[in-house]
Design a protein that fits this description.
Layout lengths: L1 H27 L6 H13 L3 H15 L2 E4 L5 E2 L5 E2 L5 E2 L2 E4 L16 E4 L3 E5 L3 E9 L13 E6 L2 E7 H5 L6 E9 L3 E10 L3 E2 L1 E6 L2
Antiparallel strand pairs: 1-14, 2-3, 4-7, 5-6, 6-13, 7-12, 8-11, 8-14, 9-10, 9-12
């Protein structure tokens, strides 16, 4: 009988050990259900990725809707109408001068005619391709010019040429503002304006680049 009890006890211990092993095996397999949750969150992150593209599109739209205004020959300024102008930039060659006390006729924005860039070869401004209205501001304020024909030059705006341009004749006299408006279409990513001297030096007081939607 003692022998039989020993065998039964041994068998019972073995059964308990086997049962314990099965229980450990079941616990080890429990973690995998957590993986599907990780897979679910991944597409969510991907779905949100188009947001930067929308931001980029907005940035382009903002660039196209913003006008660029350059106060040729001078610093940044806010004119009498509240419009802000950037300081002299984008010109190749020439020099600048300011005549802040000069009275200017035919304009509500006299501040931008108190300075000029003269004797320049060209002006360049990077732009998104599209249609623009370019406004060139001129005013004869050099006292060495006393009448028409004494300052004559040619300029070309994105392929549109203005020959024999006479600021005095166009404006109708000394210290009178004149604006030449040129519609252009940019296809190469920049606006190019070229100046060619004929009599005296070419000059300009301001440039506006206005997108046409």
């Amino acid at each position: 009988m003692k022998t039989n009890l020993f065998i039964l006890s041994a068998l019972t211990s073995t059964l308990v050990i086997v049962t314990g092993c099965q229980s450990d095996s079941h616990q080890a397999s429990a973690p995998p259900p957590a993986n599907p949750e990780a897979k679910v969150t991944a597409p969510t992150a991907t779905a949100s990725s188009p947001a930067p593209l929308a931001s980029a599109a907005s940035a382009v739209a903002n660039t196209l809707s913003a006008s660029i205004r350059i106060n040729a020959g001078g610093g940044a300024v806010k004119d009498a109408t509240g419009v802000e102008w950037l300081g002299d930039a984008g010109f190749s060659g020439g020099d600048v001068i300011e005549r802040p006390d000069q009275q200017i006729a035919n304009t509500t924005q006299p501040e931008i005619y108190h300075s000029e860039h003269y004797s320049m070869d060209s002006f360049t401004q990077k732009l998104p391709n599209g249609k623009y209205k370019v406004k060139l501001h001129f005013c004869e304020t050099y006292d060495g010019i006393t009448g028409p024909g004494e300052r004559v030059f040619t300029f070309d705006v994105a392929g549109k040429t203005f020959k024999d341009f006479d600021v005095w004749a166009k404006a109708g006299g000394f210290a009178k503002a004149y604006v030449e408006t040129v519609p252009v279409e940019i296809t190469n990513g920049q606006l190019d304006i070229k100046f060619t001297a004929q009599t005296e030096n070419p000059q300009i007081n301001a440039i506006e680049i206005i997108p046409v939607q």
